Amino acid sequence: MSDESIAAKIESLVAEEHDLRRREESDNKGAEQPETDQQRLRAVEVELDRCWDLLRQRRARAGFDQDPDDARVRDADTVERYLQ
Q1: Mean pLDDT in each 10-residue stretch from start to end of the chain (84 residues)?
Q2: Largest CA-CA distance found in the chain, in angstroms, rounded
Q3: How many Å apart are CA 44 and CA 37, to the nearest integer?
Q4: Which single residue of 2, 4, 22, 61 has CA 20 to 30 Å from 50?
Q5: What pLDDT was estimated at residue 30?
Q6: How many angstroms separate the CA atoms of 84 and 70, rounded?
Q7: pTM, whole model, 2 decimals?
Q8: Residue 33's closest CA among 42, 2, 12, 80?
Q9: What is the rounded CA–CA span in Å between residue 59 and residue 37?
Q10: Residue 45's Cα: distance from chain center in Å?
Q11: For the chain, how many structural domains are there in total?
């Protein structure tokens, strides 16, 4: 997967995230967001984290004259447990 394709996937996920958040704000004024939307929003957030992690790995490898194609998508549990 190239940096460009990862960036395109990130853009697509961000657009979906914004759409879900907009729906939450406008459609459900005061009501809870439907559970399916909440689940999808969480899944999108996790996938975004995984994409950003992969992109950072690729850029770091390129910065150290290593093959960026050796970077691998990490599982969600690993990525979600990073310390900030």
Answers
A1: 96 97 75 79 96 97 97 94 74
A2: 52
A3: 10
A4: 22
A5: 54
A6: 24
A7: 0.85
A8: 42
A9: 33
A10: 5
A11: 1
